[in-house]
UniProtKB/TrEMBL annotation:
One Pfam family in the UniProt entry: DNA_binding_1
UniProt keyword DNA damage, yes or no: yes
Chain ranges of the Methylated-DNA-[protein]-cysteine S-methyltransferase DNA binding domain: 22-95
PANTHER family referenced in this protein's UniProt entry, alphabetically: 6-O-METHYLGUANINE DNA METHYLTRANSFERASE, ALKYLTRANSFERASE-LIKE PROTEIN 1
InterPro entries xref list: ATL_DNA_repair, MethylDNA_cys_MeTrfase_DNA-bd, MethylDNA_cys_MeTrfase_DNAb, WH-like_DNA-bd_sf
Composition-biased stretches (Acidic residues): 122-133
Taxonomic lineage of the native organism: Bacteria, Bacillati, Actinomycetota, Actinomycetes, Micrococcales
Protein name: Methylated-DNA-[protein]-cysteine S-methyltransferase DNA binding domain-containing protein
Keyword terms of this UniProt record: DNA damage
Gene3D superfamilies assigned to the protein according to its UniProt record, in alphabetical order: Winged helix-like DNA-binding domain superfamily/Winged helix DNA-binding domain
Chain positions covered by the region annotation Disordered: 119-140
SUPFAM superfamilies: Methylated DNA-protein cysteine methyltransferase, C-terminal domain
Gene Ontology biological process terms, A to Z: DNA repair
Domain of life: Bacteria
Length: 140
């Protein structure tokens, strides 16, 4: 079964740009603050033209060691399940406000440059997710 989506240098460049944009956004989050996968995806759409929460999650899972990955949490304030205890320990060290096993998002949510995040119109471009998967398969 073939994939009808175009592949090639343009797609590879777009995926690489999304990955770098996601890493740059996560690196902007200061100690003691967090952002969510969804908020980073929204900001990535504005800055890079594409982004989805799943795509951000994939970038964090595959390239998160390059940035303070523990500062990216779910919409409920919980860290990703596979790194939960380690993330919570690092968040505590930074003085991030926690309530139970979650970040207190009302106190700790980082806002990116005001005015750049646009409301989600429901038209997320999940193409980047599949392209990241494809790139992982071909470079693994």
């Amino acid at each position: 079964m073939s994939n009808p989506r175009p592949r090639g240098p343009a797609v590879a460049e777009a995926v690489a740009a999304f990955i770098e944009c996601t890493l740059d956004l996560a690196a902007e989050i200061p100690p003691g603050r967090v952002s969510t996968y969804g908020r980073i995806a929204l900001e990535a759409r504005v800055r890079c033209g594409r982004g989805s929460a799943r795509g951000v999650g994939r970038v964090m899972a595959t390239r998160g060691d390059e940035i303070p990955w523990w500062r990216v949490v779910t919409a409920s304030g919980a860290p990703a399940e596979r790194v939960g205890d380690r993330a919570l320990a690092l968040l505590r060290e930074e003085g991030t406000p926690l309530v139970g096993g979650r970040v207190d998002l009302t106190a700790a949510l980082h806002t990116f440059d005001l005015g750049t995040v646009v409301p989600d119109d429901g038209a997320a471009d999940d193409t980047a997710d599949d392209d990241i998967d494809e790139r992982e398969r071909t470079h693994a």
